Amino acid sequence: MTIGEITKALLILIAGFIIARLVRRYLLNLSRSTKYVWIINEDTASTLHNLIVVITLVYAFDALGVTSFKIGGVNISNLLTAFLVFYFSYLLAKKSKDYMIMRSSTKNLPEVQVKAKLFYYTLVTLAFFIALNIAGFTGRLTTLLAAAGITGIVLGFASQTVVSNFISGIFMYFDKPLRIGDPVEVAGYSGIVHDIRILSTRIRTWDGLLVRIPNEKLFNSEIKNLQKYPARRVDIIVGIAYKEDAGKAIDVIKKTLDEMPYVLAEPEPLVFVDNLGDNSVNIAVRAWVPSEKWFDVRTQIVQRVKEALDREGIEIPFPQRVNWFAEPIRIKVEGEGES
């Protein structure tokens, strides 16, 4: 190591640190006046500052001849280059993901979030393997895995579920049976889709629990999307006593539905005698309502139909049982004692 090499390294360090500080200061000033705050901000300024500093150190070490040394048979220059490639790719993937989410509309946000995450993980994974190849680890890892055959088999079985969940997540993205924010019934759980990730999907149940479902299980399960379409049907059964006029009850129920603003006129509500039950004449009520209002409207229909039938004096019976005896039953009633 000569004096000239040391001087050259010092000059590179000084120039690099000055450039890094100037770039950081310029971006900070620019962030106060630009409309592209999503990319030109304090975070970006610090990231570029650190990146320039790292590159400066690499060139300074190279001027000193340090990068020609080897660690575990790998040149330091290759290690530093691999680190820079992975670090820069990671920053690019993260910024791109944030940009895609920020630029999307509220309506398309769930779908864009899945796309952004898929792009992010794909780019980071590719960058990782490229960095390994640059560092010269690819051949070594292949040799080690080939030598440790049993370990490879164990790792293969261990990662089988992970790979299956990953592939199922990709298939789920193209199939699109659900989106973030959709109310669903899946794998024995019911609630709102909280998040969709590469390996799993998270459901927030109606009672406030967070359930993580592996994508493989989700993909192979029956999925009921309760809000896929703008309208959903409310189905209820109303039982009236056999002595009541079924036609009158149907008219009362239809009038009640007509007075409710969230009950859709098209398709027209259906009210009809469905079957003759053990204790009542069962009338089916089928009305279409907006999907996002389904639960609230259903509870209102049940309450208002009950109130309307009560006002008209139409009896909603409770379960009754008639006992028949083959032989007449004689009942002896003993009178009270003489007063």
UniProtKB/TrEMBL annotation:
Domain Mechanosensitive ion channel transmembrane helices 2/3: 117-160
TM spans (from-to): 6-23, 44-61, 73-93, 118-138, 144-174
GO cellular component: plasma membrane
GO molecular-function term, one example from the UniProt record: mechanosensitive monoatomic ion channel activity
Primary location group: membrane
Pfam families in the record: MS_channel_1st (PF21088), MS_channel_2nd (PF00924), MS_channel_3rd (PF21082)
Record has Ribosomal protein as a keyword: no
Residue ranges of every copy of the Mechanosensitive ion channel MscS C-terminal domain listed in the record: 234-316
Membrane protein topology class: Multi-pass membrane protein
Entry keyword set: Cell membrane, Membrane, Transmembrane, Transmembrane helix
Subcellular location: Cell membrane
Record-stated family: Belongs to the MscS (TC 1.A.23) family.
This protein's name: Mechanosensitive ion channel protein MscS
Source organism of this protein record: Thermococcus gorgonarius
Lineage: Archaea, Methanobacteriati, Methanobacteriota, Thermococci, Thermococcales
